[in-house]
Amino acid sequence: MSSQNKSTFGDRLNEWKLFLWNSNKNEFLGRGGKSWALITIFYVIFYAFLAALFCITMWVMLQTISEAKPRYQDRVSSPGVMIRPRGFSQSKGIEVTVDPKKNATVMKYMSMVNEFFSRYQKEQHDVKDCKDGEYRKRLKEDAEMPACSFNLSLLGDCADPEREYRNGTPCVYIKMNKIIGFIPGNGTHSPQVSCEGHKGADIGPVSYFPSNKKLDIKYFPYFGSKYDRHYLQPVVAVRFENLPLNQKSAVECRVTGASIKIDENRDKYLGRVIFRLQRID
Q: In which element (H, E) is residue 56 found?
């Protein structure tokens, strides 16, 4: 190619200047004023249509969603079980260490229990005494539900957890997670709590409060945070009377009921909870 056909830097710069603004044709970036006006109008209409379509789609979807409960509840159809108080070992799950001689350890767990108890100790204005052995019923579809009262005196000696911990007979408190509309039992049979050594571990004798070990069905079903703001979960306290000294004991507590699943491999807390207790001398 001859040197005459090669464009110089100045030529290329002039071409760019001409592309940016062509004064002979009154064009900016290759388009005249009418062309820019038409394409601007097109994109305004196009994006306005997309925005309107998005808003309509969201509006239609929101009409199908209830404020009272999730549309789909099939992912977790059976409740999990948890304990209070609880400490966490990063590699071994839930672990509670009881050292009656170490005040800081006792108070750490007492603060957890007191926080848990606080909801039951507050003055509740929308609470009533419900009849044992009967499920809760809604009289009006959109009315707020009064909570069924749960008196901490039902927890017997475990209503004073600090005394029990200092005596070396720790209490743990078993509760089920809330699931909207969940019915745990069959007829008038309430679900029951039972605890034993996991895989044959020695945990010594245990006592239950209340002694019938029941999570009474009068606390079920739960109707969701919108209509059941003051809901109180039933609790069963388990006291470990003679834990082996200076060793970690694996404990498995189960809640059994007609509608409660246990031994699900994908969720080890479904219907049960496994934790470790250690009493230090």
A: helix 33-63
* Backbone torsions φ then ψ of 82, nearest 5 degrees: -135, 165
Residue 208 pLDDT class (50, 70, 90 cuts): very high
Summarize pLDDT for 241-276 with one digit per residue, the tens: 999 988 889 999 999 988 888 877 677 778 899 999
Query: How many CB atoms are located within 10 Å of the residue 170 CB?
Result: 25
Retrieve residue 119's tokens. 């909801």
CB atoms within 10 A of CB 165: 23
Write out pLDDT tens, residues 45-94: 999 999 999 999 999 988 888 777 777 766 667 888 999 987 755 555 68
Dist. CA 182–CA 218, nearest whole Å: 12
Domain 81-279: state its class: mainly beta
End-to-end CA distance of the chain: 96
b/e map 214-231, b = 16+ CB within 10 Å: bbbbbbbbbbbeebbeeb
DSSP reduced 3-state for 79: coil
146 preceded by a cis bond (ω within 30 of 0)? no
Virtual torsion, Cα 121, 150, 94, 77, nearest 10 deg: -130
How much is the mean pLDDT over the chain?
Answer: 85
How many H-runs (helices) and E-runs (strands) does the chain carry? 4, 13
Domain ranges of the chain: 10-63, 81-279
Rounded to 5 degrees, φ, ψ at 170 are -65, 150
pTM of the model: 0.75
